[in-house]
Amino acid sequence: MPVDQLSFDFRAAPRRDLFYYALRPSGDAASAIMEIARQCRKRHGLAGTLYDAGRLHLSLHPVMSPRGPRKGDVAAAIQAADGIKMKPFAVALNRVVTFQNKDRNPIVLCCDDGAAEITDLRNALRNESLKTGLRCGPARFRPHITLLRDRRKVPETPLDEPIRWTVQDFVLIHSLIGRSRHIILGRWQLTG
């Protein structure tokens, strides 16, 4: 259930903060993801800081413009999310991949199983967001969970055992950039 958007203080959100819809792994999946991240960091001699379990997420769709929050955006995001009708679905993260990004390469977990359903959910959020006047995010989308960022890259590596969970809901996150903190502004159950 979403928070009361009237209680959100738009003036307190720095312009660089991000707002977006995301999937959060289950508790067991988050623990398994953290173990993979620790092993990957050790095996490849990475120096980047691991994301903590409470911040692990799979980003779906942004809800703000790059210029920062605008009055009414959180209310519009809540309205857009209320329009989503999907059934729960299974996800299996099955490989570690590096996305190239100058000297802060994201080391991520990607999936094959569930990728079509994740994309369907993301596209539904994009469509509903447009209806409420929010900006549309980039068309290109590759479902992933970031483990850490590092100067070094790691080769694409399949996991011995995929990390699985059933997606039961999605959330609206306020990411406090530079403060390593996420605030969940709303949660919507997938009931189909």
List the helices and strands and how they pair.
Layout: E1 18-23, H1 27-44, E2 58-62, H2 73-82, E3 89-98, E4 105-113, H3 115-131, E5 144-150, E6 157-167, E7 169-176, E8 181-189
Antiparallel strand pairs: 1-2, 1-7, 3-4, 3-6, 4-5, 7-8
Helix pairs in contact: 2-3
Protein model, in words:
- The protein is α+β, with helices and mostly antiparallel strands and 192 residues long.
- The chain has one domain: Alpha-Beta Complex (Cyclic Phosphodiesterase, Chain: A), CATH 3.90.1140.10.
- 23% of the residues lie in helices and 34% in strands.
- It contains three helices and eight strands, in the order E-H-E-H-E-E-H-E-E-E-E.
- It has a four-stranded antiparallel sheet, with helices on one face.
- Strand 3 and strand 4 form a beta hairpin.
- Helix 2 crosses helix 3.
- The protein is globular.
- The N terminus is likely disordered.
Features:
disordered N terminus; 4-stranded antiparallel beta sheet; 8 strands; alpha+beta; Cyclic Phosphodiesterase, Chain: A; 23% helix; 192 residues
